[in-house]
Design goal:
This protein is mainly α. It has one domain: Alpha Horseshoe (Serine Threonine Protein Phosphatase 5, Tetratricopeptide repeat), CATH 1.25.40.340. It contains 8 helices and 2 strands. It has a two-stranded antiparallel sheet with strand order 1-2. Bound molecules: adenosine-5'-diphosphate (ADP) and magnesium ion. One of its GO terms (biological process) is glycerol catabolic process.
């Protein structure tokens, strides 16, 4: 079973990896965006890590809802409300159980990803974070490692796509040939989940 400590480790591992990869995320957001994705998420997850240390929520649901709230209130870009919604809705779906199964987490994440699709209007193939998140949730039923691999593959597969949502869509066909920054950061989120499970 996965307890609050596991979820805090997941968020801490995400913050650390966003920190390490911030320059790469911003570089990906340069040709098809406004070169702020790395700094947006760095600011957001730094606030998440600080809030979790200060408040130390004691259920998985409370950890993720607090993390989501922090992202919404600290990230100005489109990705803040979208990732904030993902974590808040996933946390809400987990309820107030002291620990949850991998299956419950997978189910809750699916609810969270659906909320992101509803908020942003993106579907698979639109060259957004959804292209990493949907295959990841589909693969999580198998294992955390499978979820991580599917997210990574989904992020790489955004390169030949034309963006139909978000800032990159303004470029039309010129968005083709670049990996989507949000799908790339979603792969980091799933890699951090697998990392937390390995610890
Ligand atoms: P902004 O585009 O406001 O500068 P960021 O650079 O932080 O915000 O985030 C850009 C990422 O957000 C994109 O690479 C994409 O993956 C994701 N994104 C943008 N719009 C949407 C949307 N409508 N639905 C899902 N994801 C989106
Ligand atoms: Mg941007």
């Amino acid at each position: 079973m996965l307890d609050a400590d596991f979820f805090r480790r997941w968020m801490a591992a995400t913050a650390a990896s966003v920190d390490r990869e911030a320059e790469r995320l911003t570089a990906l957001d340069s040709p098809i965006g406004d070169a702020d994705h790395g700094s947006n998420l760095q600011r957001g997850f730094t606030a998440v890590a600080a809030a979790l240390e200060k408040e130390a929520p004691d259920t998985p649901g409370a950890v993720l809802t607090l993390a989501g709230r922090q992202l919404i209130s600290t990230v100005g870009g489109a990705s803040g409300p979208l990732y904030g919604t993902l974590l808040r809705r996933t946390g809400k779906a987990l309820g107030d159980a002291a620990d949850v199964s991998e299956e419950q987490l997978t189910h809750a994440l699916r609810t969270g990803v659906e909320a992101v699709m509803q908020l942003g209007g993106a579907a698979p193939g639109d060259k957004t974070m959804i292209d990493a998140l949907v295959p990841a949730v589909d693969a999580l039923g198998e294992s955390f490692a499978a979820g991580r691999a599917a997210a990574e593959e989904g992020a790489l597969a955004t390169t030949p796509l034309q963006a139909r949502k978000g800032r990159a869509s303004y470029l039309g066909e010129r968005s083709i040939g670049h990996q989507d920054p949000g799908a790339t950061s979603s792969a980091l989120l799933l890699a951090a989940l697998a990392e937390a499970a390995d610890e």
